[in-house]
Amino acid sequence: MKVDASAFYPKLVNLLLDTVFAVDEHGEIVFVSEACEQLLGYTPEEMIGTRVLSYLHPDDFERTRAAAERVMSGQPHIDFENRYLHKAGHVVHILWSARWYEEDRLRIAVARDVTALRRSNKTRDALYRISEAAHEAPTIRALCDGVRGLIGELFPESAFFLILQDPDTGALRSPDWHTAADWTDQALTPGTGLADVTLAKRSLLATVDPATPGVGIADTDGANWLGVPMTVGERLLGALVIETREPRSGYDRGDQDLLQFVATQVATVVDRKRAEERLRFLAHHDGLTGLTNRALFYDRLETALRSANRHENRIALLFLDLDGFKGINDTRGHEAGDRILVEVARRLEDGTRDTDTVARMGGDEFTVLLTNIGDRNDVETAVSKLRELLTLPVDLGGESIRIACSIGVAMYPEDGTTAGELLGRADTNMYAGKRPDRKGQAPAHANGR
Predict the structure, then answer these.
(1) Which partner from 146, 151, 270, 369 sits 20 to 30 angstroms from 159, CA to CA?
(2) Which of 284, 312, 340 is the last residue of a domain?
(3) Number of neighbours of residue 447 by Cβ within 10 angstroms
(4) CATH no. for residue 63?
């Protein structure tokens, strides 16, 4: 049986999984196979008569035009890759084979969708980059900066938002990309895409909120906002969000899967980093109050002494203990005593500078290291401020009580030049100033004894 080739070839062309294009010398599509709808979302009728470059990703325009000119000059290519924009807005990676037919004045090309392959490569590269960032980043914030760089490569046209949930308070925080260390609070407004992602712990394709970057508009059919949760088991650690405001850009399920993969890996690393930071914190801080512990305090005191000696500065060491603290434990129990110690720690922190160090030495004893101070009057002012804060009433189960403390002061260099000398002098001065009638006495009620 003889086959009519002219009638048979169009049927074969339309059966091909790859898309066949015929483009004239002016760049206009004169023929495209039916596979174009699967490739770019447009039917052949929509594409014929339009310019092929009008579907191109803007960033690939110049090199694609140069490649087309080379083909038309007689240099066929079989491995040219570029990006086009799908009708739905997402990016499609295409591998081309093309040849110019002079007799017909047509460029015939076959387009193969390699988006899945590129995503697979991106997934592999992302895993490597996250592992690299986890190894190199000393802190969670440094890890966040590394993730930001990775997302910038995976989704170069997208704004990126990283949200972490505080494991203790549940509050959401985001890195302030304008600074090296700061974080900003992230509000969670009901009805937003971000609220849906974090509360339901599910990925979501939504629409950009024109008024508020990063939060998205939930319950929409949009696809220019994408949020995915970061979870470990059932625990929420945060979320990754990308959005684009480019008119013809958007995301698809493949982008969602890629970002979710990244989020899963990042969540694992964040969880591990938090555990490591917690262990390091506990090694150098008091477990009850969170203050610097004895070992770290001694280290900071030695460092401060070396600096003061080198720069001829003065430092002051305060030694404090609570009057009548034993009576609190005896009459109200150790839980009440612990609450008192925690409250004292917070007040000492509130009454000192960020450059000072507050430590719990054990029991009801605390130390404060004041660096770069002026004369003794400055120290007395600082001591008076702390006394004022510490004597404010404390609420213990509805009962308001006042606590008193004894404070000893030692200054470098007049009271000593070593850590041992300063601690000994401050301790001695504290006990010398303690009133005998208050050493074991219970604290007074706020409204009198």
Answers:
(1) 270
(2) 284
(3) 9
(4) 3.30.450.20
Residues in the chain: 449
Single-letter residue type at 428: T
400-412, pLDDT tens digit by residue?
888 888 999 999 9
* CA–CA dist 204, 226 (Å, integer): 6
**Closest by alpha carbon to 368, among 357, 355, 360, 384?**
357
Q: What backbone torsions phi and psi does residue 214 show, to the nearest 5 degrees?
A: 90, -20
DSSP states along 260-295: HHHHHHHHHHHHHHHHHHHHHHHHHB-TTT--B-HH
Give dist(CA 385, CA 36) in Å, integer.
Answer: 76
CB contact burial 155-188 (16+ within 10 A = b; e otherwise): beebbbbbbbbeeeeeebbbbeeeeeeeeeebeb
Which of 230, 251, 284 is the endpoint of a domain? 284
The CATH number of whichever domain residue 123 belongs to comes to 3.30.450.40
Tell me, yes or no, whether 12 lies in a domain: no
Task: Specify the number of domains making up the chain.
Answer: 3
CA distance 158 to 152: 7
The domain of 235 spans 118-284
Query: Is 345 part of a structural domain of the chain?
Result: yes
CATH of the domain at 421: 3.30.70.270
* 341 in a structural domain: yes
The angle at the Cα of 250, spanning 244 to 254, to the nearest 5 degrees, equals 120
Per the domain annotation, does 7 fall within a domain? no
Q: Which residues have a Cβ under 8 Å from the Cβ of 438 and sit 6 or more positions away?
A: 323, 324, 404
- Whether the bond between 213 and the residue before it is cis, its omega within 30 degrees of 0, is no
* pLDDT surpasses 70 at 341: yes
In DSSP terms, 406 is beta-bridged to 321
Q: What angle do CA 280, 286, 288 make, to 5 degrees?
A: 120
Judged against a pLDDT cut of 90, whether residue 449 lies above it is answered with no
Residues 148 and 228 in one domain: yes
Structure tokens at 11: 């049927």
